[in-house]
Amino acid sequence: MRRPVLLASGIAVVTIAAGIAVAASASAGTTTYEAEAAGNTFGGGAHAVGCQRCSGGSRVTGVGGQGVLTITGVVAEEDGPTKLAVTYTGDRNRTAQISVNGAVPTAVVFPSTRGAGRPGTLRVTATLRAGENDLTFSNPVGPAPDVDKVVITTDGTPPTAVPTVTASAEPGATATASPSGSAAPTSTPSDPTASPSETTPTTTPTSPAATPTSTPATSTPATTTPTTPPTTEPATTASPTAEPTGTAALEAEVVTIVNTERAKVGCPAVTADDRLTTAARGHSTDMAARDYFSHTSPEGVEFSTRITDAGYRWSRAGENIAKGQPTPAEVMTAWMNSAGHRANILTCAFKNIGVGVAADAQGTLLWTQDFASPL
What we know:
Elements: E1 14-17, E2 20-23, E3 29-34, E4 41-43, E5 47-50, E6 58-61, E7 68-76, E8 80-90, E9 94-100, E10 106-110, E11 115-128, E12 131-138, E13 146-155, E14 164-166, E15 182-185, E16 215-216, H1 221-224, H2 246-264, E17 271-272, H3 274-290, H4 303-309, E18 314-323, H5 328-336, H6 339-345, E19 352-359, E20 365-374
Parallel strand pairs: 11-14, 17-19
Antiparallel strand pairs: 1-2, 3-13, 4-7, 5-6, 7-12, 8-11, 8-13, 9-10, 9-12, 15-18, 16-18, 18-20, 19-20
Helix pairs in contact: 2-5, 3-4
């Protein structure tokens, strides 16, 4: 439901929505898009539930994992950055990926509102195109916040919200990247012949993660032998019936370039695996949302654990990460110009690959490649 807020006689109007005071300037106009509106798209378990303190008396829950919410028909007056206020609920800090019109998603951390029925608001700047736009909320890593509504400010001062997260980009997209970038293999020290901007290592040689990037599972028992192996079916491949777009298109292009490079040295092509893709996307999203760049999460979770948790039973695995390269060609060039990254890409024993890309709040892209061979 769209509810324009009109102003008269140059006096600021204050409305109360879901228990939150929202002040508008004398020149502002806003439109509200309810998350539970009938015209929106709910996928993978996302659904509307009652919420006494939410706008319209409902919110959308179940976003994250397979759950996806797309708010359709969000109108912008012109191409360019547009101020949005997302009202949401969450009993703890939650991450959501926000994608505009299917483009590369921006990972955003939504602070806890201290209750699933207690709304809070976060201000986001997204780049929309003139006319109608689709805003998609997801999170491959885990639960996203429940979404109550999105308010778009078409002119003047946006609704007040703290903290502020800005995700700027080119028209029709949600992210851009800086010209320079960095890349790191799972734990191999940087190549001394490569540019420092492309080979920033993620760990020091004395750290536990500083073992070779692609070694047999038996070489590092603590991280390469799952204590409770998942009982899943054999590896499945990601073979979409339609031409990929947005994030999927970027990821697919990386896979294509990887196989081109492997063919040059006589290695068989690697096949995209849904579980490795999930692990890679999740790590890129987590790095983007929590502002770190490492193969190991702040809690100490290593790449081998992420692959295992995604359901892939493996005998050999490796990972490359990178930050700042705006295109698949540029990130692959950075990786191929570093001995450690190149070794992962050109390891003939690898059978499967997963690629994930996400944008941080500044629009910088973070890339992850996960390679593995099944047991």
